Amino acid sequence: MNTVERITALKELHALRQAEVISDEEFNRARKQVLGSFPVKAVLDSVTHILKPLALPVVVLIVLFSLKQPIISTLNQAEQVSVGSFSVKVRERAQMIGDPELAIALSGLSERAIELLMDTGDKNMHAVALDSNGQPESLPLERLAYSELEAKGLLSGPEGYGGFIKWATSLPGKRSSYFISETGQRSDTEPAEPHRTYELYKFEKDKLSDVDKQRLKNAVFTLSDRGRKLWRLLGKVVSEQLATH
Predict the structure, then answer these.
(1) What is the mean pLDDT of residues 76-101?
(2) What span, in angstroms and rounded, lies between the C-alpha atoms of 211 and 201?
(3) What ranges do the domains of the chain cover?
(4) Range from 37-41, 58-62, 165-169, 216-220 carrying the lowest mean pLDDT
(5) Which of 17, 37, 162, 207 has its CA 20 to 30 A from that of 43?
């Protein structure tokens, strides 16, 4: 979320608070999440009380947030996007571009896999986090659903993602966790307040060979041509659905 998008989201949150649609506590929590560019799933969780009456398929919600449109105005329009019409439009659009299998691929993906698909888009995804010196430091494990994209032919990289993860977690190191609270605060100890848990595999850097380090640094994945087709298709369908209401 860039600066303009943050400002827009903050204005809309302020308007909701003024209209007493959300409480001061909800406003403050959402404000901190916007300022901290909190992950898509966490933002969705923070407005559950608004989303529940809409009865939208999870994929629609993920796409809406991934399109980076102002949150509240998009949700207002989203009330008109029905589950049935969305599914039909996805199939129709897949037929139009000559790849009806895309709709089938989508139906078999988990929520997390769809979120990763939309978050990745046309960008590169570095599987390994590097330290300030550019050396491999840790492997985020919340991205394991990329294996689902790979199985569907939606992911591309220097090697198979599933195989890479299996190899990387066999290197010297250990699993660890960190926590993100609802207010966006990161902690290495589990907080008492509601939070999300993130797992990662921390490498023992001094025990890695130069060859291993290079392989870790080379682990950059992107959506395949087919994956980008599905990414564009989902964005197009939701945009069309919103434009017709």
Answers:
(1) 65
(2) 19
(3) 125-228
(4) 37-41
(5) 162
Coil/strand/helix, residue 199:
strand
Cα separation, 198 vs 178, whole angstroms: 5
Report the share of the chain in percent with pLDDT over 70. 62
> What is the 3-class SS of 87-129, one letter each residue?
HHHHHHHHHHCCCCHHHHHHHCCCHHHHHHHHHHCCCCEECCE
Residues 120, 116: Cα–Cα separation, whole Å: 6
CA distance 9 to 4: 9
Q: Is the pLDDT of residue 34 over 50?
A: yes
Q: Rounded to whole angstroms, what are the CA distances from 201 to 116, 138, 139, 183?
A: 19, 5, 5, 25
pLDDT confidence of residue 244: 57
| Sheet strand arrangement including 155-156 | 125-126, 220-223, 155-156
* Residue 148 or residue 235, greater confidence: 148
Phi, psi of 87 (to 5 degrees): -60, -40
CB neighbourhood size of 197 (10 A): 10
Residue 223: enclosing H or E segment and its boundaries? strand 220-223
- Written as one letter, the residue type at 62 is I
d(CA 84, CA 91): 11
Instruction: Identify the pLDDT of residue 42.
Output: 53
Are 117 and 230 in contact, with CB atoms under 8 Å apart? yes
pLDDT computed for residue 130 by the predictor: 93
How many C-beta atoms surround the C-beta of residue 166 within 10 A? 10
